[in-house]
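In practice, a research group might receive sequence data for several interacting partners and want a quick structural hypothesis before committing to experiments. The following worked case mirrors that situation: the sequences arrive first, and a predicted assembly follows.
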Amino acid sequence: MRCEVVAVGTELLLGQIVDTNSAWIGEQLALAGIDCHRHTAVGDNRERMLAAFREAIERSDAVIVTGGLGPTQDDITREVVAEVMGVGMERDPEVVAEIEHRFSGRGRQMPANNLRQADVPVGATVIPEMPGTAPGLVCPIGAKVFYAVPGVPWEMKAMLEGTVLPDLHRRTGSDAVIRSRVLRTWGRSESGLAEVLADEIDRLDVEGGPTLAFLASGMEGLKVRITAKGADEDEVAAVLADEESRVREIVGPIVFGVDDQNMESVVLDELVAQGLTLATAESLTGGMVGTRLTDIPGASRAFRGSIVAYAGDVKRGLLGVPDGPVVSEAAVVAMAEGACRVLGADVSVAVTGVAGPDPQDGEEPGTVWMATSVDGAVEAWKVMFPFDRTLTRQFTVITVLEALRQRLIARRGG
Amino acid sequence: MRCEVVAVGTELLLGQIVDTNSAWIGEQLALAGIDCHRHTAVGDNRERMLAAFREAIERSDAVIVTGGLGPTQDDITREVVAEVMGVGMERDPEVVAEIEHRFSGRGRQMPANNLRQADVPVGATVIPEMPGTAPGLVCPIGAKVFYAVPGVPWEMKAMLEGTVLPDLHRRTGSDAVIRSRVLRTWGRSESGLAEVLADEIDRLDVEGGPTLAFLASGMEGLKVRITAKGADEDEVAAVLADEESRVREIVGPIVFGVDDQNMESVVLDELVAQGLTLATAESLTGGMVGTRLTDIPGASRAFRGSIVAYAGDVKRGLLGVPDGPVVSEAAVVAMAEGACRVLGADVSVAVTGVAGPDPQDGEEPGTVWMATSVDGAVEAWKVMFPFDRTLTRQFTVITVLEALRQRLIARRGG
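A structural hypothesis for the assembly, expressed as tokens:
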């Protein structure tokens, strides 16, 4: 089974938007074990769309087209797919009713243009998921198939997950269920992880067994993705659970989260579970630790606030940092203690360092002092990051929160 | 002149990385007035690369290939381009010397694999820019041409700007110089901007005249791009300057920056110019105002720090917010005053609100109170954002900083 992706939209060719849809679809196809050998982007132009669609369906068994399903005259994916199918268009009264219903539900009148979205190639079926006003289409051509879905990412994803991927899966003639689980880690490099997991990857190198893949994702951690195949959900769940515990045993406590959990959500959950409150004192990150924590809805259950002490005399006056260099152990310890005291928190993290590009107070860019305070006991350490300003700040955030996570786990005897 | 882009790399098809290169190249081609009708992504596979390259050069006058130029056995762009050209490969001694030099300069021995990177199709020339160890290639095929550049974005960009775009420009046979300038705005919607600029866009609708385009860029503002063509740099600079002043006259003071300036850099520059220091008091943004300001190297010239007062009693205890609701005019005024007092700053911004998804203290998500304090005088106002948590936080940052910018300009009598 081979499937290609064709993204439609002149704005993609002009670079006004980056095509993240094709990458996302490519990942889903790979997870489903379906080969994808080509992605194509083409503008809103009948002749060029026709050529791209015909070539794609010639090479492959299935083609997923994103974009060009909107209500304006530019949006001609429906018509071009009908031309490739060699059929005419007919207006679908159910889709008309559905679109009218959506407009009236928001107290708005439907522009006449939107009726175009109810025109469907003869022989195509409308995808039941319809999060926006653009219906998606399943368009068979002999034994092959075109799927037309909107370019709006969340509309596209709903249709892929609800209809397109299951339909592709049925067409592969396989009953197998494929699922994956992501273990998020922090504390080892990608090559370091590959090294400790090398024997396990060799062991897994058998037909039909689970697979491991690595993905470095910046502040989101280094991800280890386990993918497993099985006859049904229960079997796959058991394989995933077994492989997850093997990987955890090998890599140790550097796994901080699973799937959508991130470092901030995990730390906040742990604080709430232990009934602790958190404060932060930040210098080089300028507020990024607090920003990331408060990205999580409900952060207020544990997070009290942050002192962003960028100027040296703010560190001294507000946080009690002693005279002397502000990128130092003494400074970061005082910052961690000051954060707990000034903001009335049980636990704190503090960071001070040189984000770069220039040295500061004789310290090289990338020099960062970090500290955590738990139950009044402060631990401080120094890190030298070999990165630019942006990555130095980002890695400072995840590194100091990972250290806090480890102390919180130790605190509850985990 | 038509040019296509082919991105090589199985990791693109698997969705492990998003293809931002093609978008960037597409934008450069559009700016240079060169038509680009298709982007293609293909895996590291000889047969499929060969098919994609041949189809692309058949359709177009020039093809830019990114990726597949590394030192490993997977990297076969050089060989496949030679096959399309119908020539063999030869090892370029200058490239060998250059790669050896780079390794020895870092005190490392060159792995034998890297010698593969010095193999060049007969008749191709090496691109002089070489920021990494992968040389780029200009490969003529009759009157047409292949450019092969690395997939690493900064290496690719250096080669495009230094060699590929000028070479394409020469091949168009045009002596025209094309340049663009981006005016960044905040305070009007995209459709609102299009409306006030409609007459100007009509006026510009003549062959060879400058053009205007809009691009909504979230926290980076709503961009208006002016593109102009002329016989030489001086002529183009004059057209851009003239059109910039027309646009500024029409849209008014909502233009906050030009090209790479962002709201934070402009506010910091204005503060430094007036010898003022800045503090912030943040609630719903959790430190994002400070984070964005300190993204700018040299922020310490004006930025003193921030009080992130997420918990209500921190707002009261540390910033002097009176009893009563914390999403209110009284609260935000006290926060702005408290930021100046506690952090010892001349000027401040303060924000408190409901980021969502749930209501808080009877206020709907998206309700935000903002304030600026300049020379001890506080101005406060309320905004209702119809967005999700993420966008509400982001738009709060740019909105409050734009208000401060307007007050600073008024202060210096601008």
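Before designing any experiment, note the following. The domain at 3-171 of chain A is CATH 3.40.980.10 (Molybdenum Cofactor Biosythetic Enzyme; Chain A). The radius of gyration of chain A is 27 Å.
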